[in-house]
């Protein structure tokens, strides 16, 4: 009887140990999955933001290099700028296109024409006026707005 009693005790101990091991393994696996998911989310998020910024930079640079645009900006030819940029607006996937001069005044705004001749806001034009292309990101509650500004006058596409 003693041998049978010891066998049952050993079997209960193994079952108890096995249950604890399985529970620990499940908890560890869940923790590992959460950690890997968080790392993957941040990696994809960072890559997506980088790609969107680069895409905005390329589109803004292409607009800045359009023949005649620099001369129109220098002459403050607002109707000419609008005629040149409006066809691009239909093809671009940007939310809006903004063109400004070295005095940081709006010369074109695809979504808010009433802003023409008003000061540009954002405070990020100083680097552009020094000849650097910038990409800025303004985070809002639900989204992030990217603006790329090339250095030929203050032109931006967002």
From TrEMBL:
Please tell me whether the keyword Acyltransferase is annotated for this protein. Answer: no
Q: What class of enzyme is it?
A: transferase
Alphabetically list the UniProt keywords: Kinase, Membrane, Transferase, Transmembrane, Transmembrane helix
Report the EC number(s), separated by commas if there are several: 2.7.13.3
Gene Ontology terms for molecular function: protein histidine kinase activity
Q: Which domain of life is it from?
A: Bacteria
Looking at the UniProt entry, the stretches that span the membrane are: 21-44
In terms of InterPro entries, this protein maps to: Sensor-like_sf (IPR029151)
Q: What is this protein called?
A: Sensor histidine kinase CitA
Gene of origin? Answer: citA_2
């Amino acid at each position: 009887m003693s041998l049978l009693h010891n066998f049952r005790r050993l079997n209960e101990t193994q079952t108890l140990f096995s249950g604890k091991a399985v529970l620990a393994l499940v908890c560890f696996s869940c923790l590992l999955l959460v950690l890997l998911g968080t790392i993957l989310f941040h990696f994809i998020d960072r890559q997506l933001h980088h790609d969107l910024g680069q895409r905005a930079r390329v589109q803004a640079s292409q607009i800045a290099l359009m023949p005649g645009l620099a001369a129109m900006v220098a002459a403050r030819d607002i109707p000419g700028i609008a005629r040149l940029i409006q066809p691009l607006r239909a093809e671009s996937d940007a939310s809006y296109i903004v063109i400004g001069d070295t005095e940081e005044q709006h010369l074109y705004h695809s979504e808010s024409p009433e802003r023409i001749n008003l000061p540009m806001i954002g405070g990020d034009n100083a680097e552009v006026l020094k000849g650097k292309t910038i990409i800025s990101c303004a985070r809002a509650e639900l989204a992030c707005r990217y603006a790329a500004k090339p250095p030929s006058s203050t032109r931006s596409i967002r």
